[in-house]
Specification:
about 70% strand, three-stranded antiparallel sheet, Membrane-bound Lytic Murein Transglycosylase D, Chain A, mainly beta
Length: about 525
């Protein structure tokens, strides 16, 4: 006769593949006919964004755009000290992902490191961009897990708690933001925009039933040539607040959310103010907001059972489940001096300062997890040099951080994520910039071990239960548990405790305990 089990339906996600890879993209940029010849490249700034991603059999395909901003010295001095070229370059790449199949979930991120460039001739610039691409493929699963017994009062069931960190969904929404920014007092009117960059920064993300509310700021940096006799190079910074309410089915307040931004397109135009002066800059930007939601699921699963009066037969199934150990988040601040090389001009004003992170190693020693890596900063600055009015360089800051993760072991897998929350800087000398990045470090430890769960149970009427004495004296052996002893003598664990004291008191190696029928 079968025993009816109480079952729970759970949903979970499992990481199939996580990889980091690098690729290079080479191109020749032609100076437009409307621009003068180039005699010297001052700086090439790059930003990369993924516009499409898909999972194929054992691989992930990504497409994207590399946005190139080239600053150069023109041959004709009468047209200005600095000219610029802005172009978008398409890229695509295939990443090997063993076990990946169409229909699985994929997360992808790309960072462009400082490019290599050379002036081939006055009308052609060769650029070699290096992209760092990170992917993670996950699969959604649904399981029915027995948590106990519905009937059969004499059945003693042993359960253990399973804890999962589930990927729920990833939703992308494109939003269009329009606004105008004004030239600050004391700065000259706009003549020509040399570089216009936008970086969205999240301030608050709230998940509600069926919607997500994202609030933040657009950090805008504008490098321009000002109207005047000297054609002065100027820089201005603005912070434009934004707020978006995104309708997303299937989410609620119980989930954890993360927002990732990518700037897909930017358009800007110089406008006149009420006095007729060119002191306004109108812009439109298309931003993709990617909302990732995760949740923590806990459930009890029956791993063993016995009857007080009869023999039982159990069928167990082996399940590959990534059990959550712990999630730890830390925030750290770094400080380091970035020195300008002697072959570059001295710093007068910083125009733009960006940073990206890369993890080199995650080391687990006992319950301590150490994450090491580096932060690559790209600095664009103005100088007082007539020959090189604008320049830039990259600086690498190493970092190392250790955190305690309770319950982690040598078989655990620890996923680390490092994000640059804020990058402050101070010009501390003509050739020194003090960098002060603030990092958010997240650690998620899971145990990917297989576990056995009870799927079916029935009474074994053919097998007789041996009779035992009214009282048994048992000496506790090494490795014994209260459950093991109770199962062996077909008695409830509570009755052993009633006769001998608490589990901690009686289950000591060599201790004598009394078991009554």
């Amino acid at each position: 006769m079968s025993v009816k089990l109480r079952k729970e339906h759970i949903k979970l996600s499992q990481v199939i593949c996580a990889r980091s890879t690098k690729t290079t993209v080479e191109s020749d940029v032609i100076v437009p006919d409307t621009k003068p010849d180039a005699v010297k490249i001052l700086k090439v700034c790059t930003e990369a964004v993924i516009t499409q991603k898909s999972v194929q059999s054992d691989k992930v395909y990504v497409e994207g755009i590399i946005r190139l901003d080239i600053l150069y010295v023109p041959e004709d001095k009468g047209c200005g000290r600095v000219k610029s070229i802005s172009v978008d370059q398409n890229f695509n790449h295939i990443i090997a992902a063993n076990g990946a199949k169409p229909g699985m979930n994929v997360e992808a991120a790309v960072v462009s490191v400082s490019p290599e460039y050379n002036l081939i001739n006055s009308r052609k610039i060769g650029i070699r961009s290096t992209l760092c691409i990170n992917i993670k493929v996950t699969e959604n699963k649904e399981l029915e897990i027995a948590s106990g017994v519905e009937d059969g009062a004499d059945i003693q069931a042993k359960a253990k708690c399973l804890k999962f960190h589930n990927f729920c969904q990833c939703t992308e929404r494109d939003v269009l933001i329009k606004d105008k920014i004004e030239v600050p007092q004391g700065k000259p009117d706009l003549k020509e925009i040399l570089r216009f960059s936008i970086r969205p920064e999240l301030e608050e993300l709230r998940l509600l039933t069926g919607k997500a509310v994202a609030k933040g700021n657009l950090k805008i940096c504008t490098l321009y040539s000002g109207k005047g006799e000297d054609d002065v190079i100027e820089c201005m910074e603005h912070s434009v607040p934004f707020g978006e309410v995104l309708e997303i089915d299937g989410i609620d307040e119980s989930l954890n959310g993360e927002a990732v931004f990518s700037v897909k397109d930017v358009y800007y135009e110089i406008c006149r103010d009420n006095d007729g002066d060119k002191r306004l800059l109108s812009f439109e930007t298309a931003i993709c907001i990617e909302i990732k939601t995760t949740g923590i699921t806990e459930c009890e699963t029956m791993c063993d059972a016995y009857s007080l009066s009869r023999e039982v037969k159990m069928k167990k199934e082996c399940c590959d489940i990534e059990q959550l150990v712990d999630i730890v988040t830390d925030k750290i601040s770094l400080k380091e001096i970035a020195r300008v090389s002697d072959y570059l001009p001295e710093v007068y004003q910083v125009c733009d300062c960006t940073a990206s992170s890369e993890i080199e190693r995650v080391l687990v020693e006992g319950e301590i997890v150490t994450v090491t890596g580096y932060i690559t900063t790209n600095i664009l600055y103005m100088s007082q040099s007539e020959e090189v009015p604008v320049s830039g360089f990259s600086h690498v800051l190493p970092f190392s951080h250790s955190a305690r993760v309770d319950g982690i072991c040598e078989n655990s897998v620890c996923d680390a994520k490092v994000e640059v929350e804020h990058l402050g800087y101070i010009i501390s000398g003509n050739r020194e910039i003090e960098l002060r990045p603030t990092l958010n470090i997240g650690l998620k430890a899971v145990n990917p071990n297989s576990c056995e769960i009870v799927s079916e149970m029935e009474y074994d009427n053919e097998k007789e239960v041996p009779k035992r004495a009214a009282m048994v004296v048992y000496f506790v052996k090494k490795g014994d548990s209260l459950w093991d002893v109770a199962k062996r003598y077909r008695i409830t664990p509570e009755k052993i405790i009633e006769a001998n004291g608490s589990e901690k008191e009686c289950m000591v190696e060599g201790n004598r305990i009394y078991i009554f029928k």
